[in-house]
Amino acid sequence: MQIEPKFKDSEHFKTFWAKGNGKQLLNWSGWKPTFKNFENFAHLYYQVDELGDNAVNDTYLKLPYNEASALVQQFSKNKISENDDAPERLKRFFLQMQEVPNWFDEDLANNGARLCMRSGTNALIILRDFVLMGGYDYAYLNKPLIFTGALKKGAVKRLKDTLEFWIHVTREDALKVNSEAYQLIIRTRLMHSYARLKIKEKGKNWDYEIWGEPINFWDMLATYTGFSLVLMQGLKKLSVKISEEEEAGVFHLWKYIGYLLGIPTEFLPENRQQAVEQLYLWSTLQDQGDEGSVQLAQALLAENLESTIYKYPFQRKLLLNLHQSMNWFLLDREINERLQIPKVAVTAVFPKFIIKANQIAQQIYNLDDPRKYRKLVEIGHKDQMKVLEDYIKHTPKDFQY
């Protein structure tokens, strides 16, 4: 199917890339906007993870649920071989996943993991208030959430799952075959396929021409660019220093995660120039936030009041105000307004506090001193794990999508 960069002349696109966070990305990357490579990526809007789809078709859509889960769990925890008794297409899926490509450099990926870890709660704030909330302004990217009914079920479980995934895949040496992070990636990949197949089966109103395939490769690339490029942009806003080795490591880490999720390797960005180009070209296909975007944004804000991590209502209200202040500090004004995020009275106070705290911490724990750097990594890791433990503890056990 032939597509064009239909929103390249739209006001929301031009504003973002001419004066908003998009302009910051262009300045940081040094990449000059051009549409000459649009066709190199456009076909990804209609391409999906066929290996994952085939595996789901031969398991969860064919076998009793317990039997399908047992098979997937067996080969998630143990290597599969050609001789194993399993559906042929499930075998192909796992054989691809457990093949570590020659280009993967674990030491380089660990550089990226250490940045993710030492950034502590900064990273969690950026993921929630910048990456996730900002992503809701891309109307078409969110359509699978709407079609699978996730909108009606609140943000608590979705947030816990995202947090659990991100923390586990961004630890040092985490991505070994059959590791816990590897198993989480398998679950995520199969969940993508299951959701896509159900949308194709039941979503009669899915507009393929405008929205592409459900959970297509280009949308996936944009999503994981949020976990690499946009995460680092947000950290820089909070005065978190990032070395060249860490930056290269983050891109390499997410290149391998993308590979494990089935995305074609040749399209996974290796540096900020490639990532900005992809995000720029992809965003020409995305309309600005719509009614569904507003509902997702409001559900994410409401999660502060619904979560039982804090006992008292005044604590939850304060947390909501803090996240709103970060939204307004991190996101462009137009996006905050489109998503109908209320502006709090002391918007700048909390971000300034975080920035000052980061500057002081980086003076105390000199990043050039290996022992102090390692200490910062350990502290950040513990802080992130504590937040995850709280979310796991306070997410209803019987919650289903």
UniProtKB/TrEMBL annotation:
It holds the Pfam family MPAB_Lcp_cat. InterPro entries: Lcp-like, MPAB/Lcp_cat_dom. It comes from the Bacteria. Residues 130-343 form the ER-bound oxygenase mpaB/mpaB'/Rubber oxygenase catalytic domain. This is DUF2236 domain-containing protein. Coiled coil: none annotated.
